C-alpha cells in the first residue's frame, strides 16, 4: 500500500482536529480535537518513518504519546476546576485575562 | 623694554629661616583668623568683634612693616624673597604651591592695604555704630583684607586668582551689605556679574600661559616669555587686560563701580577706591614682562586707560550724588594708572606711586563724604548740602586736603604722582605719546573741575539742607583716620617721589627709573605748567558755576553732554542693548527650544509608545479560540514558507 495514503489521512485528521478546536466551545470537545491533532501527527511520523526506512519517526511518536498523556492529566484537571467554579465548560467563558 | 630684562630682574632668593619674612603668611593669617572668629563666633562676638577685627588688621600692618624693614636690610638685588607655605596642587606636570613672593612691589601693596585698611576699620567703628550687623561688617572687611593680601603676595597666577576671587566675594558681600534695600542687592549682583566677565578673561589667560609655558609661577614664566610667539603673547596680554578691566572698572567693564556706591561708605573708601579696584593695575604691572613681549596689548592698555580717564572724569562732572561723583573720579584716576602701566617700564613706578597716593587721598575723600552723610541723615545729594564748612570743620579740613591733593596743587601728593604719569606719557614718544599725554592733561583739567564742583557744592555756598537736617561733626573714631589720611594726602607724594624713593625701591621688580630725578625740570617743564593752567581753569570754571552762582536744589535739565554724563555715558544702556536684551532673547529661545523641541521629542516618543501599546493591548481578547486561530495561522505561514523555500 502506498504510504502516501497515510500521509493524506493524517492531514485530513489534523484538519478535522484543527477545525474542531476553532469552532467548538465545549472544553472537552476542544480537548478531544487536540488529541486528534496529536494522533494525526503520530500517524504522519510513523508513515514518514516507514517511507524513509528509519526509526526516528517511530521514537518521536512514542514521545508524543507520553506528552499527550501528561497533557490530558493536567488539561482535564484544569477543565474540572473551571467547571466547578463557573458551572460551565465553555472555553469562551474563561476569558478573564482579556486586554 | 626688552623681555630679557625680566630674567635678571626677577632673581628670587628664598627666605632665610628666622626672619620676619619666613612668617610672611602671618600677614594673611591675622585677618583671615579675625574673619573666621567673627563669622563663627555668632552674637557672642558682637560686643568685642570690631576691636578684634581692628587688632587683626593692625597686626597685619605691623607685620608688613617688619617685612619692609627686613627687605630694606637686604641688598637691592636680593629683595625678591620667595616664602613657601605648602604645596597646594600637584597633578602630572602641573604644580601650584601656596607660596608667597615678598618683593618691593608686593610689600608696597601690603602696606597700603593693611595701612589704609586699618584706618578704615577704625573709622567703621563710628560709622557703623548704629548698625546691628556691625560684627558681620567687620568680618567681611577682615575677609577682604586677607583676600587682597593673598592677591598681592601670591607668587603664581593661580594663587593670585584665588585672592582675585576672594576680593570679588568680599566686594559682593559688602556692596550688598544693606541687602534689605533692593538697589543694594541689585548693585551687588551687577558688580559680581561684570567682574565675572573680567575673571573669565583672567582665567583663560592663566590657562593659556600654562599651555604655552608649562607653569603659572611668576619667576619661571617671566624668564621664558621671550620664547613664545607674538600672537600668543598678545592674546595673553589682552585677556589679562580684560581681567584688569573687570576688577578696576575700566572701559568697557566700568558699569558696576558707580552702582557699587550702594555699599556702606567705608567699603567704598577701602574697596572701591583705595585697594581692590587697583588690583587691575597691580596685575598689569606684575605681568610687565608679558606685556613687554606684546606691544599691541600694551597699546590697548594705554588706550583703555586714556578712554577711561576721560569717561570717568566726564561722569564725575555730572553726578549729583557725592559718592557717585567720587566713584567717577576713582574710575578716572585708575585710568591714569592703567595708562601709565601700559607704557611699560617708564610708567610702572609712576603708576604704583599714583596708586599709593590715590589710595590715601581718595580714601580720605570717601571717608569725608561718609562723615558728611553721617551728619546729614545719609543724604547723598550734593544739591542738598552747601555751606557745611562751618558745621563740620574737621571734615572740611581733611576733605580739603584730599581735594587739593587730587587736583594736583603743586607739592601735594597728587601733583607729584600725576606729574610722573603725564611726563611718562609724553616720554613714551611718537604720536601715541602725544595723544596720551594730552589726554592726561585734559583729564587733569576735568579732575580740577569735578573735584572743585564737589567741594563747592558741599562745603561752600548757601545752605540747601533738608528741613530735618542738623549737620554735626563726626565722633573722633571717624575724624582721626580722616586726619591721618589727610596728612598722607599732603605729604606722601613728596616722600615717595622725591629722589625717586619709591621708584628706586621698586626698581628690582619693575626696572630702574628712566632718568635722573630733577625737581627743577619737574616744576618748570612745559607740561607741568600746562597741567597747572588746566587745573586753574577747571577750578575757576567750577567757582563761577557752583560757588559764585546759586546751585538749584532741583537739577537743571542741562544740555545733551550733561545728560549723557549723568546717564554714565549710556554705559548701562549699551550693556542693556548689547548684552541684556539679546541675552534675554537667547534665554527665551533656548527655554522655548527646550520646552518644545527637546521635551517634544521625548514626550512624543513616550506618547507614540503609549498609543501603540493601547492598540496592541486590544489584541489580547481572552478567547482561547482566537489564540488558537492565530497559532494555526502562524503555523500555516511557517509551513508555507518552508515549502516555498524548499521547492522554489
From TrEMBL, chain A:
GO terms for molecular function: NADH dehydrogenase (quinone) (non-electrogenic) activity; quinone binding. The keyword Transport applies. The keyword Transport applies. This is NADH-quinone oxidoreductase subunit K. Its main location: membrane. One of its GO terms (cellular component) is plasma membrane. It is a multi-pass membrane protein. Its EC number is 7.1.1.-. Keywords: Cell membrane, Membrane, NAD, Quinone, Translocase, Transmembrane, Transmembrane helix, Transport. It catalyses: a quinone + NADH + 5 H(+)(in) = a quinol + NAD(+) + 4 H(+)(out).
TrEMBL record, chain B:
Residues 88-138 form the NADH-Ubiquinone oxidoreductase (complex I) chain 5 N-terminal domain. GO terms for cellular component: endomembrane system; membrane. Coiled coil: none annotated. The chain crosses the membrane at residues 20-41, 48-69, 105-125, 137-154, 160-179, 200-222, 228-246, 267-285, 297-318, 325-346, 352-373, 394-416, 436-461, 482-507, 527-547, 627-647. Keywords: Membrane, Transmembrane, Transmembrane helix. Residues 154-436 form the NADH:quinone oxidoreductase/Mrp antiporter transmembrane domain. It is a multi-pass membrane protein. One of its GO terms (molecular function) is NADH dehydrogenase activity. Its main location: membrane. GO terms for biological process: ATP synthesis coupled electron transport; electron transport coupled proton transport. It is found in: Endomembrane system; Membrane. PANTHER family: NADH-UBIQUINONE OXIDOREDUCTASE CHAIN 5. This is NADH dehydrogenase subunit L.
